[in-house]
Amino acid sequence: MVRDFDVIIIGAGIVGLATACALGQQSLRVAVIDDKIAPAEISAHPAIRASAINGSSQHYFEQLGIWQSLLSSQRVLSFEDISVKEANGFARLSAHSHDYHFNNLGHIIENELMVQTLYQKACTYDNVCFFQQKAQHLYSANESASVQLADESILTAQLMVAADGANSWVRQNQQIKLWQYHYRHHALIATVKTAMPHEACARQLFYPDGIIAFLPLWQSDMSCLVWSAKPDEAERLMAQDAQTFNQSLTAATAGWLGDCQLASEKLLYPLTARYTTEFVKHRLILIGDAAHTIHPLAGQGVNLGLRDSALLAQTIQTLFATGKDIGLKPAWQSYQRSRNKDVLMMLAAMQGIESVFDGQFVIKKWLRGAGMNMIDQVPFIKKHVIKYALGL
């Protein structure tokens, strides 16, 4: 059996589903392939994984018609403050949204909530079809691209979009070259309860061997913890029982939010920067983590992927309006230049920050302290840094 579509999306995560919703609005025939579809319901307790959604991503969610649905869940936290500091050092940076006439500095949203809300929205479009199967084979011809599913049915389209994550099956299947840099950290992720309320402030602490970030959740005493540590230390923390881990976290943060208590299981991920210059090919485009991954220290990974999605959908709309074939590589030159610039700037920034905060050499400590404090004390510079993080 062969079914024909305009676009096939492989991957039903946040970025893939956002793309499905955007193309659904354009009345394009869209297929979404993923053997794991969104959870039927969200737990009453905060999910382990959450993301900081910036102003650019909020605007995209508004365009997709899901922003009010997210807010109505009462599980979206608007944060107004950021506080960054260095343990055993004098580097400091803080900001409040009102100082720059912004309503907020972003929103913390659980990944599961975004996936479920996007999935529910995509299901309202009759022109979006879901296939809860694994893709088995990909084929690309002059006139179309096709994918064979596990049940041996075949889907064809003008364009294939790979949104299947950091370990992308599509990227590996097509033998697309990938640049990788293994960061000196693993990320331990968990939900923690703190004795002191987070007061809608996103906090980040740099210490000699890692970074501890608290993303404030919709409950006033609950935060998403992202603890980036050297591999050996991360494995040690992962192996600790809850009581010992609580003591380790409270001690490492010097009681910044009082006593900390583990409120979920712990997850551990090796951190790797990935980037492929071949994210645009004949009848195939890679977006989101399939095309690039960065260090989570600035919380920009999901936002980068959503910018991929938004520009891809906009480009497809323009190409269709002018009667052009959306699968031809030359039609995507402007998209490729724009996304290359954005992603490479973010990769370079993350590499620079990670490097400058690694180590305790006296000169290095002085330079990072002086640099961060200069940003903190010069409103013009700080405002531009914040606007870039907000995607404005």
Quick tags:
392 residues, nine-stranded mixed β-sheet, six-stranded mixed β-sheet, alpha/beta, disordered C terminus, 22 strands, globular, 29% strand
In short:
This protein has 392 residues and is α/β, with parallel strands linked by helices.
Major sheet size, sense and barrel closure: 9 strands, mixed
Count of distinct strands: 22
Number of alpha- plus pi-helical segments? 11
Question: Rough shape?
Answer: globular
Helix content: 25-40%
How much beta, percentage-wise? 25-35%
Oligomeric state of this protein: single chain
Q: In angstroms, what is the radius of gyration?
A: 21 Å
Give the uncertain stretches in residue-range form: 360-378, 380-384, 387-392
Intertermini distance: 46 Å
Q: Quickly give the structural class.
A: alpha/beta
Please state the average pLDDT score. Answer: 87
Provide an overview of this structure.
This protein has 392 residues and is of the alpha/beta class. The chain contains eleven helices and 22 strands. It has helices at residues 14-25, 55-64, 67-72, 111-122, 169-173, 231-239, 242-252, 301-321, 333-356, 362-377, 379-390, and strands at 2-4, 7-10, 30-33, 50-53, 77-78, 81-86, 92-96, 107-110, 128-131, 135-140, 145-149, 154-157, 159-162, 179-194, 201-207, 210-216, 222-229, 260-262, 267-275, 280-281, 284-286, 292-293. The strands form four sheets. Strands 6, 7, 14, 15, 16, 17, 18, 19 and 22 form a nine-stranded mixed β-sheet that branches. It has a six-stranded mixed β-sheet with strand order 9-3-2-13-21-20, with helices on one face. Strand 2 (7-10), helix 1 (14-25) and strand 3 form a beta-alpha-beta unit. Helix 1 packs parallel to helix 4 (111-122), helix 1 (14-25) runs parallel beside helix 8 and helix 8 runs antiparallel to helix 9. The protein is globular. The termini are far apart.
